[in-house]
């Protein structure tokens, strides 16, 4: 969704929560993914050692990102891959469009790519009469239903088998209704095979780009990624510029962390390493390979040592799978391309707090995401930082876009009142303490709304007739 | 086993102060019974977490400075909450990292210990159960679980009670949806989470749900009562004290 579109978070959240089918689908799917992950990382010490390694690799990459990107460009160019730089998503889409148009192509086949979602590439291509067909099964399903991905790894996870069966029957001509998984797979496979043969340009994402060799790594399970990057004569890879790593030896630990965290696999069925277009004498592979490097606010995020940690992300989706909020909402309710915990820290930084700041409040800070994050992103710290910057205007050049958008709300004032009562020893009276509990008067909510919100499903807390301060005094507990 | 101190400070937490003073007193009495002197500084107030999580670090520091002042001596600071304990132990050093009180906050944090961890690892407490047979279930607060890492200590205390049968939740590790101001800022999501938690509790057949954090207890207890499910939500310290004193 573009930043100009206003996302109605409360409405989205309420709609998602009142959809029992969605809740059931998500819960079942997240439970399965979580279980698989636990099975593969059953040795806790080994996992901790591996993720310390992953964290170190990603930190090292980000520390020297400008140099690594230059090196990547140089190596890719030497290898015959054409490198393009895009500051904005519009620029990135235009670059793709002009490459496609220069080949007079109208049929594009796509492997799964969240950056292409960020660019709204399909929409841009469609406007220019170019068909962009998603070939990842999940992406194909949601494209049939005119939806966006609800998860960064398993984009159609919000749908169950019956819903997919109905969709195929309704949308794919001459398709008898079936709920048999193998038959559904075969239906999609048949459609996609024909499209692979006819595709004139293939578009893919990139999981890691290796600076020292100029290699683009692509992780996938269906072989559609390999088809998109080898069958058409032109391959365009789109990538967020943070995805670069320094050395080829950095890839195995990250790959292990990615597949284990995402789907509980030791390795995916396909792992593509693309280092050049077809060389003379070779029988297959694209004749042209392009790499589009997208910034879209990432270099600004990089400048701040704390916020930079956001860019360590390898897009495994484990934080979504383990998030009690995501599990109940699904991805669409977040309204932007990246949902869940990682989306809630990344999106406000890219789109601005004034647009997406509310995402940072959709968390209990329970820390389940940090516990599973394979590169140790301090998600809860960054959420607090975003909450803080929502209220405070600052002169810092690293301030998050849209900082201070809530600065004149009553909430700021009332927290000041709370601080006063809780830092003054004489103010240990019940009424003052009440402030600290639920933020009665502390939020912009009126007392009536606050009580209404709390009592949706709960009775009101009962206040004790005597505080612990009073009881302790009465029982003669020393105050020293 | 760490050295047994003669005296400890007790940080009661604002929520216990306001709604659950009996749970707070139970913690004090459990420590006293082991021959340790408990000091309850009357100048203490709130750890500051509500403002900290809402995004108000400056206001948090004002309140946190008051706690730094209220616990001046080098005694352990025992906290009957994983959440407030986590704030004092793990977030104070961060909160004051660039402030004149940086070293003081570090020292303060190093003295903080959650109640059940203190009872188990420092006092090596032995409990004698005097209560009737009962089935209970246990809710792990997120901070006790992930920040403080004390859940095994808490549950080991329940297991010491001979007549108590612990029936575990299906999703013991899942957040109950309280999250402080989250519960009223995101009421729909919070309601969905606590409703699922309550269903999980109800399916255990337990007569009581225990936890080490009063935020969760207020949330879960309120939701149980709202649905007329007669399972009281109780702080572990109070439960243990009830069953072992007299």
From TrEMBL, chain A:
Protein known as: Lactate utilisation protein B (LutB)
Q: Which UniProt keywords apply?
A: 4Fe-4S, Electron transport, Iron, Iron-sulfur, Metal-binding, Repeat, Transport
User: Which Pfam families does the protein's record reference?
Assistant: Fer4_8, LUD_dom, LutB_C
PROSITE patterns referenced in this protein's UniProt entry, alphabetically: 4FE4S_FER_1 (PS00198), 4FE4S_FER_2 (PS51379)
Q: Which GO terms describe its biological process?
A: lactate metabolic process
Against InterPro entries, the record matches this protein to: 4Fe4S_Fe-S-bd, 4Fe4S_Fe_S_CS, FTHF_cligase-like_sf, Helical_ferredxn, LUD_dom, LutB/LldF, LutB_C, NagB/RpiA_transferase-like
4Fe-4S ferredoxin-type domain boundaries: 303-332
**Top-level division of the source organism's lineage:** Bacteria
Q: Mind listing the GO molecular function terms for this protein?
A: 4 iron, 4 sulfur cluster binding; metal ion binding
Please give the PANTHER family that the UniProt record associates with this protein: LACTATE UTILIZATION PROTEIN B
Automatic annotation (TrEMBL), chain B:
Q: Which InterPro entries match?
A: Cys_rich_dom
Domain Cysteine-rich intervals: 8-89, 136-220
List the Gene Ontology MF annotations in alphabetical order. oxidoreductase activity
- Example of a GO cellular component annotation carried by this entry: cytosol
Cited Pfam families: CCG (PF02754)
Q: What is this protein called?
A: Lactate utilisation protein A (LutA)
Query: Which organism's genome codes for this protein?
Result: Candidatus Contendobacter odensis Run_B_J11
């Amino acid at each position: 969704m573009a930043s100009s579109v206003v996302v109605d978070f409360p409405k989205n959240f309420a709609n998602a929560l009142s959809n029992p089918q969605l809740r059931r689908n998500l819960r079942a799917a997240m439970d399965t993914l979580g279980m698989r992950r636990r099975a593969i990382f059953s040795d806790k010490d080994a996992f901790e050692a591996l993720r310390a390694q992953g964290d170190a690799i990603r930190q090292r990459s980000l520390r020297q990102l400008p140099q690594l990107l230059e090196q990547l460009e140089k190596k890719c160019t030497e290898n015959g891959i054409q490198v393009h730089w895009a500051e904005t998503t519009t620029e990135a889409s235009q670059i793709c469009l002009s490459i496609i148009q220069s080949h007079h192509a109208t049929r594009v086949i796509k492997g799964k790519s969240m950056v292409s979602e960020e660019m709204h590439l399909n929409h841009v291509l469609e406007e220019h009469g170019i068909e962009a067909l998603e070939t990842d099964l999940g992406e194909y399903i949601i494209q049939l239903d005119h939806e966006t991905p609800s998860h960064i790894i398993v984009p159609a996870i919000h749908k169950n088998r019956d819903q997919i069966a109905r969709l195929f029957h309704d949308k794919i001509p001459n398709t008898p209704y079936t709920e048999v998984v193998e038959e559904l797979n075969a239906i999609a496979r048949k459609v996609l095979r024909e499209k692979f043969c006819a595709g004139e340009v293939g578009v893919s994402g990139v999981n890691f780009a290796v600076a020292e060799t100029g290699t683009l790594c692509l992780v996938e399970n269906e072989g559609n990624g390999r088809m998109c990057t080898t069958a058409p004569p032109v391959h365009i890879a789109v990538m967020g510029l943070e995805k670069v790593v320094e050395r080829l030896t950095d890839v195995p630990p990250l790959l292990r962390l990615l597949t284990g965290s995402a789907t509980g696999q030791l390795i995916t069925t396909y792992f593509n390493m693309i280092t050049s277009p077809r060389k003379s004498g070779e029988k297959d592979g694209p004749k042209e390979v392009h790499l589009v490097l997208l910034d879209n606010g990432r270099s600004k995020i990089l400048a701040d040592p704390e916020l930079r940690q956001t860019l360590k992300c390898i897009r495994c989706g484990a934080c979504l799978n383990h998030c009690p909020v995501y599990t109940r909402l699904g991805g669409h309710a977040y309204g932007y391309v990246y949902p869940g915990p990682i989306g809630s820290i990344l999106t406000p930084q890219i789109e601005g707090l004034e647009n997406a700041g509310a995402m940072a409040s959709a968390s209990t800070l329970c820390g389940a995401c940090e516990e599973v994050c394979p590169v140790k992103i301090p998600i809860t710290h960054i959420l607090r930082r975003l909450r803080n910057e929502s209220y405070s205007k600052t002169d810092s050049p690293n301030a998050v876009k849209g900082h201070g958008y809530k600065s004149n709300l009553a909430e700021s004032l009332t927290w000041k009142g709370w601080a006063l009562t809780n830092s003054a020893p004489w103010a240990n009276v019940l009424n003052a303490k009440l402030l600290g509990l639920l933020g009665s008067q502390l939020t912009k909510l009126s007392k009536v709304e606050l009580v209404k919100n709390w009592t949706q499903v709960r009775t009101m807390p009962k206040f004790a007739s005597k505080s612990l301060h009073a009881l302790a005094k009465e029982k003669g507990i020393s105050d020293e | 086993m760490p050295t047994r101190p003669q005296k400890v400070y007790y940080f009661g937490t604002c929520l216990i102060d306001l709604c659950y003073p009996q749970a707070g007193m139970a913690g004090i009495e459990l420590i006293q019974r082991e021959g340790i002197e408990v000091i309850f500084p009357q100048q203490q107030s709130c750890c500051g977490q509500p403002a900290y999580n809402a995004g108000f670090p400056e206001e948090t520091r004002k309140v946190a400075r008051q706690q730094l002042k209220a616990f001046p001596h080098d005694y352990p600071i025992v906290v009957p909450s994983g959440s407030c304990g986590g704030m004092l132990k793990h977030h104070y050093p961060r909160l004051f990292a660039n402030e004149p009180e940086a070293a003081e906050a570090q020292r303060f944090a190093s003295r903080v210990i959650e109640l059940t961890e203190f009872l188990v690892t420092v006092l090596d407490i032995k409990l004698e159960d005097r209560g009737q047979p009962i089935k209970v279930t246990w809710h792990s607060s997120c901070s006790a679980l992930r920040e403080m890492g004390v859940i095994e200590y808490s549950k080991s205390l329940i297991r010491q009670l001979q007549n108590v049968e612990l029936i575990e939740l299906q999703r013991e590790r899942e957040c109950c949806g309280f999250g402080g101001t989250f519960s009223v800022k995101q009421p729909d999501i919070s309601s969905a989470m606590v409703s699922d938690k309550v269903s999980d509790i109800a399916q255990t057949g337990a007569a009581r749900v225990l936890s080490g954090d009063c935020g969760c207890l207020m949330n879960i207890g309120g939701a149980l009562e709202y649905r007329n499910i007669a399972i009281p939500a109780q702080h572990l310290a109070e439960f243990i004290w009830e069953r072992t004193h007299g």
